[in-house]
Amino acid sequence: TTYKIAAIPGDGIGVDITDAASQVLNTLAQAHGGFSFDFMTFDWSSKKYLERGWYMPEDGMAQLKKHDAIYFGAVGWPDVPDHISLWSLILPIRTSMNQYVNVRPTRILKSVTAPLAQLQKNRKDLDWVIIRENSEGEYAGQGGITHGHGPNAIATELAIFTRVGIERIMRFAFETAKLRPRKKLTMVTKSNAQRHGMVLWDKVFYEVAKEYEGVVEWDKMLVDAMTVRMVNKPESMDTIVATNLHADILSDLAAALAGSIGIAPSSNLDPTRSCPSMFEPIHGSAPDIAGKGIANPVGAFWSAAEMVRWLGKGDLDKTADQLMEAIENVSENGIRTRDMGGESSTKEVTDAVCKEIEAI
Ligand code: NAI
Ligand code: MG
Q1: Is residue 74 in some structural domain?
Q2: In a domain, 105, yes or no
Q3: If you measure from the C-alpha of residue 249 to the centroid of ligand 1, how many angstroms do you get, rounded to a whole number?
Q4: Which of 116, 118, 233, 279 has its CA 20 to 30 A from that of 58?
Q5: Does the beta carbon of 76 lie inside 6 Å of ligand 1?
Q6: Domain containing 287: what range?
Q7: For the whole prediction, is pTM greater than 0.90?
Q8: Between the CA atoms of 118, 174, 101 and 270, what dihedral angle is there, to the nearest 10 degrees?
Q9: What is the pLDDT of residues 87-111, one digit of tens each?
Q10: What is the total count of domains within the chain?
């Protein structure tokens, strides 16, 4: 099998880590022997936008649709307002490609230093999958501004919640929880203060939960209290489901608790498989370290492992596990970037992971 991958490196360190990920994926395919990748790179970035006035060509979505998966680096650069770059590239791809689930696994990889002493000691306590609603909610893009941006300006930012949208994310979350050892689902809202959409979210959750009685244990948290529980009682949770905005924030916290934002992966999935799914580390373009060759590629590699798992539909799980093992061995051997307390470059970590894949 040859998997056709659309690679969108984007901006800043997105370029470095996408290069690194394709090198590792090709090495993995060669070592395995049963499959290969055909990468097509799309130069859709903020730099190109400043030159030519657009991020994606008009038939951009149609081009992406011809691929089996999309690998995404990061988008955003100081010369372009962030809401323009995000809304020109990553957000339209997620919605156009029906990627209504964003999966963010978090655990403390072997030899990574956790910032909290308690977690450093009980590393297995932190083992979560955050399921983020990826198509509506607070990022629906609805709202507006009246009176310009002047002294009387009023802006609205409308969150949209549909029964269809809530129900499908809940089902996905319960199915995920069912397959995990702890078989636990924590549902996050802010339904005390937000009294319409969040209340519907609760209601639909209770309905779907009935179908999983005796199969998945569940509980419910308000998002503010959730941040405290993540820090104080990490072992009490497993699968977490939250809205687009809430899960965006909680997953950055989760990544920091697990060691570094540079490690965390994400999968934007179309569970119906009618469109290609998209895989990307959760971090951004990191302008502060761009061009220095020191970006941590681990989040990019972990995202690549998740892509392999998705493409293989169960047949490549072992191969994805081998990639994870290679990543962890390299970090254990002290080959780490600065954010993980090491001194190695992106290239050194990448070469070491490739070597390790060949050795496993
Ligand atoms: P960021 O994730 O780019 O950087 C936050 C901090 O973490 C920085 O100090 C950075 O150096 C560090 N960091 C991030 N990834 C790292 C890695 N792989 N290795 C080592 N250190 C790493 O978030 P920030 O600064 O808020 O955003 C920068 C730009 O990226 C903005 O334009 C933002 O809109 C965009 N962005 C894009 C995302 C995407 O494409 N999915 C996601 C998040 C931000
Ligand atoms: Mg984020």
Answers
A1: yes
A2: no
A3: 13
A4: 279
A5: yes
A6: 1-99+272-360
A7: yes
A8: 140
A9: 999 999 999 999 999 999 999 998 8
A10: 2
